[in-house]
Specification:
Largest sheet: 12 strands, antiparallel, barrel
Strand content: over 45%
Order of helices and strands: HEEEEEEEEEEEEE
Helix content: under 10%
CATH topology: Porin
Structural class: mainly beta
Radius of gyration: 20 Å
CATH class: Mainly Beta
Distance between the termini: 76 Å
Strand order of the largest sheet: 1-2-3-4-5-6-7-8-9-11-12-13
Shape: globular
């Protein structure tokens, strides 16, 4: 091999290696940072939510065609409608404000939430089914399918919920080993029926049959608060810290909703 060819071969090999290492990167849903608590609109009742979040400090690199999340703001409009006592239909219209100031359309999602009509006291059970079509700059896999089981417990003082989410859109090297496991959970304490304060947790572990290594997984812990004092109005705010090298360092989020009863 000639001396001139060696640097070129080394550069090419390094670039290919970096691409291969980046390819299986995991990602949480950047547009809907929420733990479902098993509630649903009553039949004939419509609702509207605005999900807004901002990555204050995050990764500045991404595998093309996806964009690096650092400095991005996301705005998602979510209309919903109670069709049956056990069925709520909804959708998402996603937009993004990039760090360079450009405003983007960021995809559409449709969902169906089924809940247990007569659960045991203080307990709510359900499942949310979702299909999405996103631009490649925000999800290289474009089409997505999510199954979100829901289990919650709520009394006068406490609210606990867990969503062991399965993402069937994962197409990384271990995709044949099952859907990606992306659980979410929360624990909130109610203060005089005015606000609920507590923690929300979100994670991306990788395929169920072959979990990613610890430094490739994403884990977030949000300190969050919910407004409880205003009927029909929903307000959730939180600040989250990334707990692993693959996570964004700081993320702020807000959910503002209204029920048109």
């Amino acid at each position: 091999m000639s001396e001139r060819a060696r640097p070129r071969l080394l550069a090419s090999s390094t670039g290919i290696t970096l691409v291969l290492l980046a390819a299986p990167a995991l990602a949480l849903d950047a547009f809907e940072i929420q733990v479902y608590d098993g509630t649903a609109n009553a039949p004939g009742v419509a609702g509207l939510e605005l999900h807004a979040n901002h990555v204050f400090s995050g990764s500045r690199t991404a595998t093309p065609p996806e964009l690096a999340p650092d400095g991005q703001s996301h705005f998602t409009f979510e209309p919903s409608y109670g069709l049956l006592p056990f069925l709520e239909l909804g959708g998402y219209f996603q937009t993004a404000l990039r760090a360079d100031g450009q405003f983007d359309y960021a995809g559409t999602k449709l969902r169906a939430k089924l809940v247990l009509p007569s659960p045991p006291q203080h307990v709510r059970l359900g499942v949310n089914l979702e299909v999405s079509l996103l631009p490649r700059s925000y999800d290289a896999e474009r089409w997505g399918t999510e199954l979100r089981p829901i289990a919650a417990y709520e009394d006068e003082r406490w609210l606990f919920a867990i969503n062991p989410i399965l993402d069937f859109s994962y197409t990384g090297p271990d995709a044949r080993k099952g859907p990606a496991f992306e659980p979410a959970a929360m624990a909130k304490l109610k203060l005089a029926s005015l606000v609920g304060v507590g923690l929300e947790y979100y994670a991306a572990f990788g395929p169920l049959g072959h979990l990613a290594s610890a430094h490739e997984q994403q884990h977030y812990l949000f300190e969050a608060a919910d407004l409880l004092a205003v009927e029909k109005l929903e307000l959730n705010v939180g600040v989250g810290e990334g707990l692993t090298p693959a996570s964004n360092s700081w993320v702020g989020k807000m959910i503002l909703g209204y029920s048109f009863e």
